[in-house]
Amino acid sequence: MSDGEQKTTILGHLRELRNRIFKSAIAVIIGFFICFTFREWIFYILKLPARGITFSAIEMTENLSSIMLVCFVGGIVLAMPVLVYHGIMFVAPALTRNEKKWVLIIIPWIFLMFMGGVAFGYFLLAPWTIWFLTTFGSDVAEVYPRISNYIGFLTKLLLLTGLVFEMPVISTFLARFGLLKPEWLAKKRSIAIIIAFVAAAIITPPDPITQVLLAIPLILLYEMSIILARVVYRRRQQAAEAKAAELD
Question: Which residues in 32-65 are b (16+ Cβ under 10 Å) and which e?
């Protein structure tokens, strides 16, 4: 390939990247305005784990900034299938036909597992965490959290649990293409357990019950990752052996 052809190819990739980023941004903006339209309903749902706590807004822009944050994060969540699609399609020309098929299969699972993690954080982890933070030391002073502090804490918690639940999907994807071996995951099990409790301690407040509530699902997700990686990695090896036998 000549320098001119290589330059043309690079420019083509850059144009495609620009177009996909633009389309992804449009999807986020559309999701933002959808969330903004239903902001009162969304805030009602977000306040449910707080169980009737009275919130305060100290700064004049606090309500506005909280609404913008929720709508922006909600826009990303709504646009996630589009974001994942354009991200994968950008590298699709380098994939084989079989690999593209696996990519199309895995896209819905990425969204479903993320929403499963968000649901876990919302229905189980958030209520207990918020209860502990607002009741511990309540004999010293009543707690009236700032709305921006509550929204920031809750969105971070839900996003982190959503991302953590992507672990089995990512490990399956990597194992399918031979980039991750299940034996390696199994050998690192003890380290993964320690990391699970450390991560739970970072994400949640200094409450052992809340840390265990998060650490146990993390460990179970890691075990699920090992099982799924073994299945797809074994199938990949069988397909490779069958293809080698045909060539012989």
Answer: bebbbeebeebbeebbebbeeeebeeeeeebeee
